[in-house]
Each structure stands twice: as structure tokens, then as C-alpha cells.
Amino acid sequence: MSWKIERVEGADLDLDEVLEVYRASGLGERRPIEDRERFAAMLGHANLVLVARDEPGALIGIVRAVSDFSYVTYLSDIAVTLGQQRSGVGRALIAATQAEAPGVKIVLLSAPAAVDYYPRIGFTQHNSAWVLNP
Ligand SMILES: CC(C)(COP(=O)(O)OP(=O)(O)OC[C@H]1O[C@@H](n2cnc3c(N)ncnc32)[C@H](O)[C@@H]1OP(=O)(O)O)[C@@H](O)C(=O)NCCC(=O)NCCS
Fold this sequence. Notes:
alpha+beta; 5-stranded mixed beta sheet; 5 strands; binds coenzyme A
């Protein structure tokens, strides 16, 4: 399968198409996909969004991140549709995210299903991540 990765404006994406990728990847269980208004804001306010599309052009993967393009990129979400997982799309999305903010580290909180993924693609574990819930 071949695919293409491009940086996009989150607000320009078709919300239903994006929601379907979250659903079809499994990440939708951990994100507020039922709240369309909130989700549209999540897409619109993320300042570094990349998508992967297959040959006919269907959305098969997405990265939603916030970057200062100088010091740190916070990778909020990465999702690849189930049928396309483990074929290199996730790795390519991360590489493209790095290319958009070169020399800048990527920080993320892993979903439980992906804790073994990040060390495979070069991430190191940080033992002092902290979350302040609203
Ligand atoms: C996690 C995810 C983004 C990875 O994307 P992907 O396109 O499937 O991963 P890749 O094909 O780039 O995988 C690269 C390597 O990691 C391995 N891998 C993929 N998913 C893995 C996982 N969940 N656990 C452990 N290893 C994994 C692949 O087998 C591959 O190994 P290889 O280099 O030996 O061939 C994708 O599987 C996904 O969307 N999962 C569900 C949503 C989710 O949990 N997102 C993370 C939110 S923090």
C-alpha cells in the first residue's frame, strides 16, 4: 500500500472523516469524539496537524500536535486506521512531524495500547511526567 503524508490546517479537515479515523484506530475510545464542537476546536487549535492519505485519497492516519517550532512539540494524538496499522504509517507520521519542527524534541503521553510502540521507534521513557487535570 502506498500513502502520502502532508501538513494541513486542522480546521480545513472534514470533521467526520477525522472522527472516523479516531474510531477506526481505537483512539476514539480515549478522546471526546461524541462532542463535535469540542473536537472541532481540538483540530482547529492544534498548530501542527499532519495527515496520511492512501492512494485514492482516503484519510488513514493523523497527528495532532502543538509545537513552538523552537524547543518542544507536544504530540497530542497519533492514530492510524486499524487496517493500515503496522505498515509504517505511524513511523512516517512521526518522521514528518519531526521534519516540520527540526531540532525540536517531541513529548507525548502514551495510550496504554501504545506503550510498547514508542520505544520501538526511538522514544525514551521519561520518569517525571505530570498531569494537572482540570
Ligand atoms: C500506535 C499507532 C499510531 C502506531 O502506528 P502504526 O502505523 O501502526 O505503526 P508503524 O507501522 O509505524 O510501526 C512501527 C513499528 O512498531 C510496531 N508497532 C506498531 N504498533 C505497535 C504497538 N501498539 N505496540 C508495539 N509495537 C507496535 C510495528 O510492528 C513496527 O515494528 P517493526 O519496525 O519491527 O516493523 C497505531 O497502531 C494506532 O493508531 N494505534 C491505536 C491508537 C493509539 O493507541 N494511538 C496512540 C495514542 S498515544
